[in-house]
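Summary of Year 1 activities. Much of the first year was spent building the evaluation harness for sequence design. The harness presents a backbone, in tokenized form, and records the residue chosen at every position. We chose the following record to illustrate the format because it has been used consistently in internal testing since the harness was completed.
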């Protein structure tokens, strides 16, 4: 039956009732809030309530909502061409973007790049390239990692509920090693030993096409891979002819204080995947890698109908300009410092906060019952988020035990709003703990 939108009250409750009637349960909903408009780090819902956005569309809005330069670039491109399918008729913004991303990607070797639509597509295509180049099949990922909701993406993801539960069987030849996590007793040596165990008990190194990891685990809890771990992986991959893939879908586009987090490793991966913030909210993803590897798939083996859409390419080029003009890498570090200082002040009051960690402006706090690192507190995490949204602050949680609060505020956030958000978060903690 056709529903007249004008006849329906524009309230969060009414719209969410329609949403639940029309959409499947599996499409999760963090908050019963319907956005109406947004500007930089602020969002207003359909009832006119204002929110400070500490979630950034899950790491998509490093340049904020509706940055005027992005809006202008997309409007200008819309007046020229908005789709041809790049594999049929090429267009210059795609070529420009590939050249600029290649120049910003670490590695003293020739590189090539191409574009897709989502982070999961980029990950799957990076694996395809690695398999084509090495003539091997096996891939090693890490526990706690997240690489997408497609079939191969789910197989690579190191978390069962909710991402893998009920969706198997998964593609074969995927193995999981331990990710280094000092807070929970997993050292770099432990992680490397788990890789040795895979080579000994599951698959010989000579059949492994790729090792893929997030420089900072996103959904897994914002755990940071130490540079010495990445360097050890680089040596291991070089020894056995394995392709090293850095999944920078969440860390990339300046979130960690460098354009790519792997710039802080001291070694270069063979391939990088990007998505999320690279185009400020427009759907595009990238695979950037060694030219000799990237050229291995045959013509037609790579691509996609909407991949590298002209509007998204124009937006991504604008994002690169904004980072340079507004010095957002410096701003990322400054935002991270403000957040860490503010969160440590909250932690001094609440012993439930067992850790405050950050790489640039990729910041998280982990909550435990009575500060006991053996008792993750998912309930308190949920209550803090609920108290925050009531007070006008969008927060996200994550982690294998759902006990981590993660902050992905736009890097363009005004300092006053950043501090206002921290004050709301402090109040939300007080209320959640008291409740």
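For this record, the design step produced the sequence shown next.
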């Amino acid at each position: 039956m056709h529903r007249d939108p004008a006849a329906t009250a524009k309230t969060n409750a009414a719209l969410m009732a329609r949403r639940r009637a029309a959409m499947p349960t599996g499409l999760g909903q963090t908050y019963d809030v319907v956005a109406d408009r947004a500007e930089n780090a602020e969002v207003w819902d359909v009832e006119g309530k204002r929110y400070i956005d500490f979630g950034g569309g899950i790491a998509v809005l490093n340049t904020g909502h509706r940055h005027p330069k992005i809006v202008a670039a997309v409007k200008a491109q819309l007046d020229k061409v908005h789709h041809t399918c790049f594999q049929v008729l090429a267009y210059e913004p795609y070529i420009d973007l590939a050249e600029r991303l290649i120049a910003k990607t670490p590695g003293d070797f020739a590189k090539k790049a191409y574009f897709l639509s989502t982070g999961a597509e980029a990950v799957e295509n990076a694996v395809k390239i690695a398999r084509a180049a090495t003539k091997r099949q096996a891939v090693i990922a890490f526990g706690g990692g997240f690489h997408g909701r497609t079939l191969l993406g789910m197989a690579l993801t190191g978390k069962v509920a909710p991402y893998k539960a009920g969706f198997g069987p998964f593609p074969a030849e995927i193995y999981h090693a331990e990710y280094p996590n000092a807070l929970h007793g997993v050292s770099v040596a432990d992680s490397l030993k788990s890789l040795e165990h895979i080579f000994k008990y599951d698959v010989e190194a000579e059949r492994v096409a790729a090792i893929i990891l997030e420089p900072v685990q996103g959904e897994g809890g914002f755990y940071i891979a130490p540079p010495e771990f990445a360097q050890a992986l680089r040596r291991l991959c070089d020894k056995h002819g394995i392709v090293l893939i850095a999944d920078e879908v969440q860390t990339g586009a300046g979130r960690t204080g460098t354009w790519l987090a792997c710039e802080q490793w001291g070694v270069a991966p063979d391939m990088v995947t990007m998505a999320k913030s690279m185009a400020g909210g427009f759907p595009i993803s990238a695979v950037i890698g060694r030219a000799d590897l990237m050229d291995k798939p045959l013509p037609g083996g790579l691509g996609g109908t909407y991949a590298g859409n002209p509007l998204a390419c124009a937006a991504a080029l604008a994002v690169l300009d904004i980072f340079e003009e507004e010095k957002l890498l410096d701003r990322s570090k400054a935002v991270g410092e403000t957040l860490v200082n503010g969160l440590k002040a909250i932690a001094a009051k609440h012993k439930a906060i067992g850790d405050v960690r950050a790489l640039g402006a990729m910041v998280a706090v982990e909550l435990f019952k009575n500060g006991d690192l053996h008792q993750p507190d998912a309930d308190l995490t949920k209550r803090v988020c609920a108290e925050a949204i009531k007070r006008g602050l969008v927060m996200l949680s994550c982690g294998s035990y759902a006990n981590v609060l993660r902050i992905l505020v736009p890097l363009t956030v005004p300092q006053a709003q950043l501090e206002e958000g921290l004050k709301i978060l402090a109040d939300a903690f007080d209320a959640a703990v008291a409740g």
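DSSP finds 13 helices and 15 strands in the chain. Quantitative recovery figures across the full test set are reported in Table 2.
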